[in-house]
Amino acid sequence: MKDGMNSRLLLDCAKSCILASSPVFRRQQFLIRCVEGSIDHQPLSRDMQVLRSIEVDPENLIRAITPALDHTRHKGQAGNIAVIGGCREYTGAPYFAAISALKLGADLSHVFCTKDAAPVIKSYSPELIVHPVLEESYGVGEENKRSISSKVLAEVDKWMERFDCLVVGPGLGRDPFLLDCVSELMRHARQSNIPIVIDGDGLFLVTNNIDLVRGYPLAVLTPNVNEYKRLVQKVLNSEVNNEDAPQQLISLAKQIGGVTILRKGNSDLISDGNSVQAVSIYGSPRRCGGQGDILSGSVGVFLSWARKHILSADSKSHLSNKNPTVLGCIAGSTILRKAASLAFLKKKRSTVTGDIIECLGQCLEDISPAS
Amino acid sequence: MKDGMNSRLLLDCAKSCILASSPVFRRQQFLIRCVEGSIDHQPLSRDMQVLRSIEVDPENLIRAITPALDHTRHKGQAGNIAVIGGCREYTGAPYFAAISALKLGADLSHVFCTKDAAPVIKSYSPELIVHPVLEESYGVGEENKRSISSKVLAEVDKWMERFDCLVVGPGLGRDPFLLDCVSELMRHARQSNIPIVIDGDGLFLVTNNIDLVRGYPLAVLTPNVNEYKRLVQKVLNSEVNNEDAPQQLISLAKQIGGVTILRKGNSDLISDGNSVQAVSIYGSPRRCGGQGDILSGSVGVFLSWARKHILSADSKSHLSNKNPTVLGCIAGSTILRKAASLAFLKKKRSTVTGDIIECLGQCLEDISPAS
Questions:
Q1: Residues B32-54: what's their mean pLDDT?
Q2: For the domain with range A58-367, which CATH number is right: 3.40.1190.20, 3.40.630.30, 3.30.70.100, 1.10.10.10?
Q3: Interface test mutation site (partner B, options A95, A128, A350, max chain B beta carbons within 10 A)
Q4: Ligand-binding site membership of B268 (annotated)
Q5: Which of B73, B104, B123 is opposite residue A349, by nearest beta carbon?
Q6: What are the residue boundaries of the structural domains of chain A, listed by start?
Q7: Chain A residues with CB inside 8 Å of B132's CB?
Q8: Which residues contact B309 (CB under 8 A, 6 or more apart)?
Q9: Chain B partners of A42 at a C-beta cutoff of 8 Å?
């Protein structure tokens, strides 16, 4: 698979009319990469069965991008992640995303949330850096909105350049004034070329204003079933087509200008508009809320690592022609599923999201030992 | 016992004058079902000794209603529970009830509490979704009561249809304005046919306004000794009769129009006005506060599961003619006692409610392995 594609794949490539010169071809190949674990819990769709081929083995990928640990490294080099989320109503989600980043090996994990949410999120863990800077409408008079919005932006901008990735949305809520501020934050992050993983209420925001991410290759959307449905309706003006899910996902990602989309489901499907990769290794049958937050934090860390790996790797790296946001999604999806599986072995029905987070480290160590 | 009753039971049935056609007879049979464990810690009353018979084995019951876990399930399908409780004074009780639901396998667990209580309850665990929506009188001017009450109701109504069960009362307090709002919430839940488990201060509320639950078969009351005493005085206008406890419990449940009552005691007695079931397996001699909250959360989960099981089960299910609220009480009482027993083995006098909650998962796993 390294230098070419088999005839079935070529046929699909021809269909999609995206064959071009060799480097572009490699980058844009129309490839369904299907990563299977030992337990395949559901039959794959027609397309997936036809195109069952592995180009990126997720464990090899994780080993390749996970940074070596040695005494020469400085604080922050293994990742500095910022979660934008946490409001009066929701505090668990941003905590799960931020602590997952730390537990995977990021050096620093920040949360930017409302003033009401900050003491609670701080109380979950002294490991996080929690900034009480966001404001909801109820605390802001109409006449102050402009000045408060500027202040919020200035507070986050002070830190922006230091972040390897923003995770926007866990527990963000839907307050209009808050979402306006976050839209502006996303524009600033784009100007600084900082990757943005968007989940939860961040997807609500983006679905209603696609231009926030349109054409930004460092944006990752991680919709669940319902969020994906709204996104397809809004962008493609059609309904979800499960019969040809990979093709529709490619169309969607392409339509938004090459953002990466991780469509969560029994198999997670990942596309940047050029290829589709499925992650189907078995996770857990437990559906406790919060697992999506682990995923968004994990994708944030892995895509940062993949980006650094690719930027620093010599030309021999087999990943150098890959999209780091796609690699981050493959790695994040894989580690969540492995951790969920391990937690379920231990805690069974009683498994909660915190139990899964406690398994992240061991799962990463099993794949990529720290020393 | 499946298709008939012995002569003693028939005699009791005749006494109660509720013999009717066969299906009605089965549903309304006047049966004392006495579930005994290996350690019988106190002599049963005369009636219980006479009528020691098991129709529903609680472990078989738990196995039957606990939903299978598989990859096809979505978040929420294993249960979405809401606890209404938590005020300036009390925060532990709603946490215990809500986290117990999660630890038994519910997917989502919400708490609706006052604004003062919310940050504290949130800080106990990021796993819960805590809504700071209730208001106490001290924060509400007379002129604002109507608008604030409407706002509280609207906040909860947004979520109402998603809940499989409300647990009303843990740490609710007795503030008159707050209780008025909760009364209205209960009326809305009834309109949506959502089961309601009522404990603690919720029982104070209901005892003073029986119409809130009268004739609602999806209501469960879980009174302790004192709460039961007040209920008997109010509804039956008499004192508690321990000599004929099962008969009095049946009369009480019938008088309130077929609600289910779980009378907590050395043996828990459960009745919906048609039959009485006792759960007497040995729990723990430790009487740390909070065990009633575990019970209310557990009953909420199990009755939701029982209801789904019965609604979806084919006609062959041996539970299809049973009352799901009664089944939920039997299962909840059983799992609490087993967990309390296991926790006491480990922690002895030092056992606190959190230790019992940590044993819920293992006890359920012992009875109904997740895979």
A1: 39
A2: 3.40.1190.20
A3: A350
A4: yes
A5: B104
A6: 7-50, 58-367
A7: 88-89
A8: B64, B65, B67, B317, B319, B324
A9: 71-72
Beta-carbon separation of B126 and A282 below 8 A: no
Q: Point out the residue among B73, B102, B123 whose CB comes nearest to the CB of A285.
A: B73
B126: nearest CB among A91, A116, A344 = A91
Distance from CA of B54 to the nearest CA of A (A): 28
Q: What does the alpha-carbon distance between residue A64 and residue A41 come to, in Å, rounded to a whole number?
A: 27
Reading chain A (371 residues) residue by residue, the pLDDT tens digits are 334 334 443 333 333 333 333 333 333 333 333 333 333 344 444 444 333 334 789 999 999 999 998 888 888 888 999 999 999 999 999 999 999 999 999 999 999 999 999 999 999 999 999 999 999 998 788 889 999 999 999 999 999 999 999 999 999 999 999 999 999 999 999 999 999 999 999 999 999 999 999 999 999 999 999 999 999 999 999 999 999 999 999 999 999 999 999 999 999 999 999 999 999 999 999 888 899 999 999 999 999 999 999 988 666 778 888 999 999 999 999 999 999 999 999 999 999 999 999 999 999 999 999 97
B230 is in an annotated binding site: yes
A267 chain-B contacts, CB cut-off 8 A: none
**Residue B260 CB neighbours (<10 A):** 29
Domain at B59-367, CATH class: alpha beta
B291 is in an annotated binding site: yes
Nearest by CB: A287 against B75, B128, B132: B75
- Minimum Cα–Cα distance from B104: chain A residue: A350
Q: Report the complex ipTM.
A: 0.82
